[in-house]
## 1
Amino acid sequence: MKKIVISLAAALAATTAFAGGLLTTTNQNAHSLRFFAQDADINLTSLYANPAGQAFLNKGWHISASAMTAMQSRSIATTCPLYAFKDGQTTHNFKGNAFAPVVPSFDFAYVQDKWSVSAHFGVVAGGGTCEFENGLGSLEALAAKMIYDGVVPELTKGLGQMGVPAEQIPTKVNQLFRYNLQSSMTGTQNYFGFQVGGTYKIIDNLSAYVGVRGVYATCGYTGGIENMKYSVDGGQNYSALPASKPSNIALDCQQSGFGVTPIIGIHYRPIKGLEIAAKYEFMTKINLTNKTTPESAVATSLLPLYKDGNKVRTDMPALLNIGAQYRPIENVKLAASWRYYFDKSATKDGYAGDQKINMNDLIDNNTMEFLASAEWKFCKWVAASLSWQNTSYGLSNAYMSDTDFNLSSNSIGGGFRIYPCKLLIIDLGYMHTFYQDRTVTSEATKMTNLYSRTNDVVGVGLNFAF
């Protein structure tokens, strides 16, 4: 019973993400969808990736607004022998769909000769809602085991009393015992970031940035198991579980918290046409406070982590990104970036059995990303771009589960920048991610999971300068 609730609570932490580390979302606007390697780019729309570069913008006011739409699916094929007692199949497929219709971002900068001030607002982690209409494999397996353990011993005893030979009892049990249940869960995660800072041009070709980001996190987890029941006549008739074993388990928990991220950056222009920049974001410590409904009393009595008022640690890791950009000719720019996420140094509360643990202790290596982009302004009014990104996670098999999995991937993106007039620039971007499927077998549970994901994001941005 206790293990079922633990799985239920953890499984709801599923949500969408665009690109970045285990929690961090680095695609912040339509420009970032079409030109990934922004880390040395001179653009207001590159403020998130290269804040120190704002010093090299034209003097005056710069304002940008962008909206993205993300569509993601998570598929898990779970193999468990107990599933055969439901429908005769040992492999069940579980799919979660995440959809974020509008993910907004805003950028602002005011630039003078030596200094500039800037601000950015966006969704810096999470970003949407993911719904598993038929729950997750680990949840169903644990519920099936609870029903099996509560029914089969009595069924076995009864068959023996009826004179069925001992060697025939297992076969008879397989013919007679069946279980059924309904399970669903929905998770929402949004980490809103508001960043402010200043850039100073130390010399004509060198600038530095200091800023801070406030992160407000809001998460909601709802779901459960309903109508757990069993049959001992091959599925002809089903009975409810005894009153001592609730047939319904529900959790409705809302979480919120706040964290602060100090940020520093530097931008260097050694020769004409070449840009080099780096940015470091310090770790963001976030404690989420639970607000859990009284109807979740059964669940929270077994899982203190989700009790009303309790705090759950979910840090955003520190991030280092380094980039270079070069213009071989005036209307062409080539860029490359490297990003490193200090996942192992952050803290993420989780459970292993009955013990509270730091999930990031199960990470073998920190996350790394390599990015490359090219843009060609082929006429006065339009520029086209193409990008590639590789994200490599160092997650151990022990970290991976249907409640929390990430897959290494390659992404491609592209789009257009349109210049309709002197004051306005329009960005149109699209990104698709190719994930590497991964199969993991748990030595503890003897279950096997095949993990798959899909991801598509489109965006449009409006940029003004005056």
## 2
Amino acid sequence: MRRSSLLVIALVALAHAAIYIAYQRPDWSSTSAWTDQAGYDRLGTGLATTGQFTRFPDSPVFVPEVIRTPGYPAFVAAIYLVFGTGNHMAVAVAQAFVFAAICCLVAILARRAAGDRAAIAAGVLAALYAPMPYFGALVLTELWTAFVAIAAMVVCVAAAHGGRTRNFFLAGVLFSATALVRPAFYLMPFFLSIAVPLLVRSQRSGASLKNWATLALAAALTLAPWFTYNYVTLGQFTMAPAGGVGRGLWEGSWQGQWPGRIQAELIDLATNIADRDQLTARVKDVAQRTRMPAEPMLQYVNEWRDIRLIWESPTDPMERARARVLADGAYLNHALSNIGRDPIGHITRRLTRGLFILWAAEVPIRYSDINTTPVWVIRVLWALQVALLVAAALGAIWLARHDRWLDAVLLTLPLIYVTGVHVPLLCEARQSLPD
């Protein structure tokens, strides 16, 4: 593959990223748009200024972070060390180059699987795929996760074809580095180490099994310091003490009960109205206007408020961190209760609405504009993503039919993994962005 082709792909990606930086900039200072940005900014600032992974660097007692993992804050901190803390523009520009690198990696991955023409097509499609520069203009994990995950896959595919143990070891390190950015990926290397030999006959020899075991071992060794850190600071062997399945399962137990805009309105009411009687009256107004039952809406906003009070009530930062861990258990208990009342309905919603949202519902429109966007525009964006999924399925079939079974399996398994991890929980389209 010519370097000129990669250069063109990179330039298209950079131009696309520049457009989204200009487009997203009005929302950078908004307190309601992508509130997760504030958390990553604080963690990045803490790492850059003190070297400690905490939201409270000025606290006399070290307060460990209980929600986020350190992979992305470390990336943000590196940028802040060079360009100054709180420099959103520097992060956005750096992520524009990360986006260009992703597109080149996609082309390299496609070239190994299907040749030069497929590589150029894949690279250009990646460069034109709007959700990536959309998130690249924000201080959020999505683009960095995609970069590390795709780099891990490039090395993994090269290792599977070449059989070099050192490449398997490096792939294991990179997969766990992905998990340190987004914890949902921490089982990925172990899943691949088992699934690939089971599905691909050529990977069942003694040497190949040793190599896949090496990948799993490297992944475990890479994760060990983080698990140890969590045990020492909060007494749990976990990827993120309060970032467990509790909240995701609770959110998933409600997802699909109402259209997204109605649920967003309920969250806004629960967030901004402190008085319970006033909140109840406003929720009943929503129910009457939408002609939907008020009781489930009231249950939702009250659960939302009650659980958040568990960690919002403490004023001491350390007590608040411990309370956030307890809150995840409360989320889990409520989720199981909600699911138990209608298990068939829950499963149906997860396999229909949840699955669709995960893979085809990204809307790369500025947060402050999305609720005024015409429905037909959103549906066109959905249709384009469905078409992309169909193309991916056809590509996997083509690889399998042309005796590229190893490539077909390697490139399909991440999609299966992401689906299996996320569909039981709250589904957001950005969760599938690395794939």
## 3
Amino acid sequence: MGKADQAAWEANAQFWDEQMGPDSNRFHREVVRPLANRLLAPRPGEHILEAACGNGNYAAYLAGQGVQVTAFDYSPAMVALAKARQRRYLKHIRFLVADGTSLAELQAMAGPFDKAVCNMAVMDMAAIEPLFTWIFTQLKPGGCFVFVTQHPCFVTLTEQYLTPHSYDGEAIAGQPRLQRYYHRSLTDILGQCFASGFVLDGFLEGVYGPKERPDVIAVRAR
């Protein structure tokens, strides 16, 4: 990712951790986590990779299910906050600093993993090919990669859909700095799954609140 992207998350890290707290916000609890759990189906004894782990709340949830977790984020400040917040689980979670858009940094982490997960971060990545390609090589036979990301058809601040582009936006009201979003069509997102060698066997859409228009997609790639 670019230095500007990383600087934004460094500036937002403390605010983000405070807003998420120990249990994450309602959107994550009621939409993101249930979708991820449904497709990931974590089991005790598994070793699961979490990409873009933020303050470590989902990693801690997995650890509480008896899972061994390797979790990384490209914001050193966020990883430091995750280690502090989730210190009771540090025997079960390995927190690392790594850039998910850098194949060299990803390759420095040791697999293999039973499964991998990435919650609400694909849209924050300037490039997804390195992460998707690397995860495919690190999964054990039969393993899966589950990611939840904003729905590209319905969640965007521009009128463009087919053309990849980026824009600045706010994830949580009042955050110190705007963050960069990278829009990709469903064709681009799922096409990268196929190009990396995956096949898809799970796809869900999630809605926050009573409306019909979905906010997120959840994908399971094997």
